[in-house]
Structures are given as C-alpha cells and as structure tokens.
Design brief:
mainly beta; Tachylectin-2, Chain A; 5-stranded antiparallel β-sheet; 5-stranded mixed β-sheet; 2 helices; 23 strands
C-alpha cells in the first residue's frame, strides 16, 4: 500500500510539473482608497515607466501611482483631454520630445468613433479613433504634473469597426493598429492587425496620416490560434499589450455571459505559440489594459464602484504558451 501511495504521489508531482500554472492575480490597490483623487476613479489604459503607473481615465485624465509604495504621485488632464477621448490603451514609445525629458513620449488610443473637436484644430475635427502622442511634463524634481499633445497619428482603413494602437517598447521599430472588423461578439467578427514602421517623431509634424501603402504586415488574430479555438473575436475586446513579441488581449467584463479572459499569441520569434486564460472566478471585473512592471504584468480593472489595479506573474504566461 505504501508503494502504491508513493507511485501515485510521484505521478501527481510529475503532472503538476508538466501542467502550466494558471497566472493568479494579486490586488495591488483600489482607486477608491485614494481620497485625494479629484476626478473619476474608473480606469482605462495604462503605461508603466520604472515604478510609476500612468493610469488613464475616460475623457483623458491621468493618475500617476508609485507601484512600489502604492502611493498617488500626481494627477492631471492629458493634452488630449476631452469628452471624445476614451484613453483606452497607453504605452511609452521609443523617443523623447527633448533629450532632457525624464519620460519618453506616451501614446494614447482615443478609441471612440466620435470626431475630435476639443483640441481646436480644424484639420482634425472630422478624424476619429486617433492615436494621441503626449509629452509628460515634470517639475524640477522630475515629478510629473501634466502633459501636452504634441502629435496625432491617424489611419483610416476602408472597413473596420474599431481602431486601437499598440507597440512593443522592447522592439520599437513597429507600431500595430488593430480592431474588430464587425464588432464585439457579432457574427463574422474577426480581429485584424496591421503593422507600420513606427512614425518618427518630429515637433514640426503634428498630424501623421498612415496609409495602406505603408502597411508592413497584415493578419487576423484567429490565424494565430489553432483551428477551431475560441479567440478574442468572440469576446468583448478591451486593451492590449505587446511584450517581447507576444500580443496580449484582455477581454470581457467579469460576468458569466462575458467572462474575464486573456488571449495571447506570438507575433515574431514566438510566432506559432498561443495561450488563453479565464480569470472570472478570481477576477470578476472588467480587465482594461496590460503593461509590464519588472517580472509582473499590471492590469487595471473596473468594478461596480471603483478601479482596481492587479498584477500577474509574467513568467506564468510565457510558460503556459503552447505551439500549434
């Protein structure tokens, strides 16, 4: 009997070693606990630089948190702030406005289909689903206190339901525009991705119009999945991140009908690998965006009452990826 138990334990141990560990979320903090926040406590896109989390809110507000100390460092409106800026995704680019700037330029997806009217420039009034380029302003101590809109990037494909933007800051030669071709969870929907050479920033070039002639690569997310696999084209699409050539797409709202899920697949050297997780049982909220902080993925989520900021072990995502 003792031998049988020992063999069984060894089999279970071997199985556990070969079974990918599902990433488990850790609650970092809740925005509702910061009484000093002067505007909305919801969350949308996010971007991490060092230990600082730039957490964006609908209409283009920004809260800056120290992730290590879990403290609010700053709060301010973006230069692109306005009722038609959903600030759905954010990431830091490869360039600075000025060599003396502490932070690189931050890129923010407008997301909404309504035209821009708030920034007071006639040539952009009819444009929508833009990518805003923000210069983070700091005081003499390097503390951020505001930002200014220094560039707008526009791409208008013939038939897309949405347009969102993301880049891999470790491989900043490309920028990706992606979105639904029909709409969240609608029959026939697919998520299309198109890459462009990352537009070089110039203070003399405010409006950048990208065209189909400049597309480097074009693909559908379901092409990265095994045949028959359920993908984000069948879910409510939220934000995105590209980390070391892997595209992550958090989806859902944390309900039984619309579960909290993460779909991810390799775009470059990891091409052919994919993964997916359902976190609804431990994260019954709306996962808004992803970014990397050290060896953890930061994920801001919206709840019924406030924004929550979670983190996941990044290594667990990578270890769980399988090949077609």
């Amino acid at each position: 009997m003792k031998h049988i138990i020992t063999v069984a334990a060894a089999v279970l141990l071997l199985a556990s070693c070969n079974t990918p560990q599902r990433p488990r979320p850790e609650l970092m903090f809740r925005l509702i606990d910061f009484e000093e926040i002067e505007h909305s406590r919801n969350v949308q896109g996010c971007a991490v630089y060092g230990d600082l989390l730039f957490s964006l809110q609908d209409k283009g507000w920004c809260n800056v948190f120290d992730l290590e100390g879990k403290e609010l460092e700053a709060q301010f409106p973006l230069g692109s702030q306005g009722r038609n800026n959903h600030a759905n995704i954010a990431f830091f680019g490869p360039q600075r406005y000025d060599e003396s700037d502490r932070f690189p330029l931050m890129y923010v997806s407008q997301c909404k289909s309504k035209p821009v009217t708030e920034i007071g420039l006639a040539e952009t009034d009819s444009l929508s689903r833009l990518l805003f380029v923000e210069r983070i302003l700091t005081d003499e101590n390097g503390t951020p206190f505001g930002s200014e809109l220094v560039q707008i990037i526009n791409y208008e494909p013939a038939q897309w339901n949405s347009r969102l933007w993301i880049a891999d800051t470790k491989q900043p030669d490309l920028i990706w525009c992606y979105g639904n071709i029909v709409g969240n969870e609608k029959p026939g929907n697919r998520i299309v991705l198109k890459s462009f050479a990352f537009p070089e920033f110039s203070p003399d070039r405010f409006l950048v119009n990208l065209t189909d002639n400049e597309v480097k690569d074009s693909l559908y997310f379901d092409e990265l999945l095994p045949e028959g696999a359920r993908g984000p084209q069948n879910a409510i699409l939220q934000g995105a991140a590209i980390i070391d050539g892997i595209l992550y797409l958090p989806c859902g709202v944390g309900s039984k009908k619309h579960p909290s899920e993460v779909f991810y697949a390799g775009l470059r050297r990891h091409k052919g690998k994919y993964g997916a997780f359902d976190f609804t049982d431990v994260l019954p909220w709306e996962p808004e965006d992803f970014d990397l902080w050290g060896d953890r993925i930061i994920c801001p989520c919206n709840t019924d009452s406030s924004g929550f900021v979670y983190s996941f072990p990044y290594r667990d995502f990578v270890r769980s990826m399988t090949r077609k």
